[in-house]
Structure formats: C-alpha cells, structure tokens
C-alpha cells in the first residue's frame, strides 16, 4: 500500500544565547513561532527568524526550521 505525506505545519525556532552558567558552560533558550505555512521557503524562514530575533533581548545563535507532516495510506 502506498503512503502519502501531507505537510501540516512549520515551526521556526530561534535559539538565543542567554548567558554563561556558573560552571562556564554557555546557556541557550528557544523562542518559537508556530503554525507557519509549510510552503514557506527556507530563505523566508531564515529572514523571519533573523528579523524576529531583533525584537528579543538575547542575541540570536541559530534559526531552526521544524516541519510536521501527516502520513496516510492510500
């Protein structure tokens, strides 16, 4: 039986640097934008992550794109 993949949603996750722990390790936190149209291009996802991070108090470390899909048998 064939399986079809249906893209459902995309999340843009911004990983931001929040400081240094007492033991010297760098600490990070994630800030997310959910329910993004999965047809969004990678370039646009990066642009949104960078532009949104400019509004945050902590500096941007990386932008992560997470796609969710549903699998169905046909």
Task: Please characterize this protein's 3D structure.
The chain has 74 residues and is α+β, with helices and mostly antiparallel strands. It is built from one helix and three strands, in the order ββαβ. It has one helix spanning 42-53, and strands at 3-20, 26-36, 60-73. The chain has a three-stranded antiparallel sheet, covered by helices on one side. It starts with a strand and ends with a strand. The model has no long low-confidence stretch (mean pLDDT 96).
Topology:
Blueprint: E1 3-20, E2 26-36, H1 42-53, E3 60-73
Antiparallel strand pairs: 1-2, 1-3
Q: What is the β-strand count?
A: 3
Global morphology: elongated
Helix content: 10-25%
State the secondary-structure class: alpha+beta
The profile of the biggest β sheet is:
3 strands, antiparallel
Indicate the low-confidence ranges by residue numbers.
none
Q: Treating each run of at least 4 consecutive H or I residues as one helix, how many helices?
A: 1
Mean pLDDT: 96
What is the alpha-carbon Rg in Å?
16 Å
Rounded to the nearest angstrom, the distance between the terminal CA atoms is 6 Å
- Beta-strand content estimate: over 45%
Major beta sheet, strand line-up: 2-1-3
Q: Sketch the topology as an H/E string, one letter per element.
A: EEHE
């Amino acid at each position: 039986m064939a399986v079809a993949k249906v893209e459902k949603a995309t999340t843009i996750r911004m990983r931001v640097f929040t400081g240094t722990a007492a033991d010297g390790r760098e600490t990070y936190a994630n800030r997310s934008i959910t329910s993004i149209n999965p047809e969004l291009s990678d370039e646009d996802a990066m642009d949104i992550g960078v532009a949104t991070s400019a509004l945050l108090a902590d500096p941007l470390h990386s932008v992560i794109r997470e796609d969710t899909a549903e699998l169905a048998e046909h």
